[in-house]
Specification:
Oligomer: single chain
Largest sheet: none
Strand content: under 5%
Distance between the termini: 18 Å
Structural class: mainly alpha
Helix content: 40-55%
Radius of gyration: 12 Å
CATH class: Mainly Alpha
Order of helices and strands: HHH
CATH architecture: Orthogonal Bundle
């Protein structure tokens, strides 16, 4: 999956949870900050991660949560977890 593919799928998830959502996908970039730009608190970010796990059929290891600051960090998690689960029986 490319960064653009992941952003396309993440955009509605983030808009649904963000206190100050960007007007459209074009407003989300890998540099968009979860707390400062989207006004998400830690609990909201946990809910976003749950949404991501469900949407992408992934399990995100708890140790990945400590370094989540931007949309790009979420994209990296999805791309990394997606590669780790490829070949796994569905």
């Amino acid at each position: 999956m490319t960064t653009d593919d992941v952003l396309h799928t993440l955009a509605p998830l983030l808009r649904a949870r963000a206190e100050s959502p960007p007007p459209d996908r074009g407003g989300l970039t890998p540099d968009t900050r979860l707390e400062q730009d989207l006004h998400m608190d830690s609990m909201t970010i946990v809910h976003v991660l749950e949404d991501i796990e469900e949407s992408f059929d992934l399990t995100i290891p708890d140790e990945r949560l400590a370094d989540l600051y931007t949309v790009g960090d979420l994209v990296d998690i999805v791309r990394t977890a997606g590669t780790a689960t490829q070949g796994r029986a569905a």
